[in-house]
Every structure is written in C-alpha cells, then in structure tokens.
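Known limitations

Files may contain more than one protein. Parsers should not assume a single record per file. Below, a two-record file is shown to illustrate correct handling: read the sequence, read the token line, then continue until end of file.
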Amino acid sequence: MTFPERVFKLAERSFRPEDQVGIAVTRVRTRDHIGLFYRGLRATDESPLPVRQFHLAWHFELKNEPVDELFSLWVDPAVGRRAKHLAAYCRLVWAQNEDGRLAYAFTTPVGALTTEGSFTDSGRLGLTCASFVLAIFHHAGLPLIRYDEWPAREDDVWWQGEIAQMLQAKGASKTHLETVRSQIGCVRYRPVEVGAAGLAAERPASFASVGELAQVLNNLLSS
C-alpha cells in the first residue's frame, strides 16, 4: 500500500535526528488509539536525544515511555520551527503529571492545560486519548481542529456508554462515574480523525477536510 506524504510506518521509518514531534496512531483489534512521539531531554552531551511516546492509555494511566511497537503509524504534523516548542511542552506536561493519574473522561480539550503543564480546574475531570493530543496542540498555540465544527454523532453515544461501563469495572469512583455518564452525548474526537487533522493542508482543520484523510489512515491501519 502506498503511504501518503508525512505518514510513516514506524517499523520502516523511525524518527530522524531532525524530527521533534509526531502524532502516533494504532489499531488494537477494533479499537483505535492515539498519542504523541517527541524528543526527550539529552542525558549527556554525547548521547542522542531519546524519543518518547506520550499518551493517555486509560483511566489514571498517562504514560511517557520509550517508543515500542504499540503504535504502528505516525504522522508528521509539519509544524516547522514550532516543533521544538511542542516537544518542550510535552516534557513540561509530563513533569507536572509524572504520577500518571490523569482521569479518563469526555471533558473538552480547550483550556484543559495551563502554561505550566498542569490541568486546570475545568480540565481536571479527564480526557480521552484523542482529546489529550488535542489539548497539547491547543495550548501550544497550534490547534489541530475547528472545535465548533465537530458534530456530536449518534454512534458515539454507544462508545461513550461502553467507556462508562469499563470505568465502572475498573473501580472508578461513584462521583467520577456520575460525571462521565452526564457527559454521554457530547462531542467525541476520534483518534483517526485527530491524526488526519495533522495531515490537513490548513489548520485548524475543518471537519469536512479531515474525512478523506481519515479514511486514508483507516485503510492503512486495517492493512
């Protein structure tokens, strides 16, 4: 299968020294997942800058780890000189949240993060893997999508309800479950669409513009 420009299979094209940040996507059975690749800090003057994968894996499971085989594809978001700033902000967010206890919920990514990298009161309830990536780009001054154009879709209600059931099985608190259930029916940002926004010719990307690009990523993940 032909890969479009700026989409790479991790097994065949890892980060080059000049790469600073990438949007990582994968499909595990029927579930899509998204995160970020970014350059870490230099350990010594001689060592290369390590690449980390940074993603909200699940409830209270924000992870910052060496790149492994979890993510199969990555997208170069082509942010130019801002890439180093974006990577630095990833490091800052992790420094503020090293315990990994970021809740999983459907809170909006807009305004979820502070300049210092911590979560604001409005963002404290929690994010999804996709809204976490959106929040990073948004606060770094590089919003990926036009939020006001994203629709709440009927089939996302089923997904949100299933997430609520999974959170209950995990032992999430009663208060958290009540709030998550109250959010069912809100806008869901799908991982493949967020990854596709990184490929859009113009950003913030419109909902209409990511449809064909999302299908390209869908096909690659299914192949």
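...continuing to the second record:
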Amino acid sequence: MLDIYPEAKFIHIYRNPYEVFFSTKKLYEGIMPLFTLQNYDMKEIEENIFYFYKAMYEKFFREQHLIKDENYVEIRYENFIKEPFKTLKEIYEALKLPDFEKSKNRFKKYIAQQKNYNSRRYKITKEDKERIYEHWKFTINKWDY
C-alpha cells in the first residue's frame, strides 16, 4: 500500500488477544456451517486462528518501521470503546487530519446512537488463557494484557 500511497495514514487498533481469539472463533463457528461442503474440525480451525494471527502480527511488526511516525497512530480498542470521542480527537491530532471541528457534531451524534452497543464478553478459563498465551505472548506482553 505504501508503494501506491506513500503518505497514507494508518490507524492500528489493537484489541485484547484473548478476546480476539474467542471473537474469531465465534465468527468461524457461524460461517463454517454455511460455506463448507465437507466436515471440519474446530480444533483445526482454532490452530488456523492461532497461526494466521501470529503470522499477520509478525509481518506487521517487521514492516511497521516502513510507515512514517507522523502517518501512524496506535490505539487500544478498549480505550476507544470507553471514550470514543476523546480517542477520535487524539487520532485526528496525532495524524494532523483536518476538519475535526467541522465533523465533531456528527461524531457525537453517531456515538450517541451507539450507546446501547455492548461488546460480547467471553468466559475465558485458565486453560484457555494459558493456551492463547502460549501462542500469542508476543502481543499479549507488548500490549500488557
């Protein structure tokens, strides 16, 4: 993307890896019965979730340095959910994006419309946590989850 848009702005929203695992698993549990013609093993799907997340973030961390600091901002999903307006303002400031003042009323209106949205909560056992940590400790440690 940087070859095509060298001045592109990037917003990296990272989320609790434990929640990411269960959210991704729930997605697959919902779509696999709809799109598969053969039997599948959820344990194999889980291993694929572990593999692709790890491969994606390893590549991202290797190449992140290619993005200019002034074109990159990283935010924690949980902070964004807790304080969306404040986080949007911080994103605009960090990336020096124009027209925040012009858009702020629309942001506030949209945020108000989303006030009843609740992220799904997952019951994470000690065994689940250990298994996920074993695969994704590099992000769990980096982001202090």
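Parsers that stop after the first record will miss the second one. For reference, the second record is described as follows. The longest helix spans residues 42-63.
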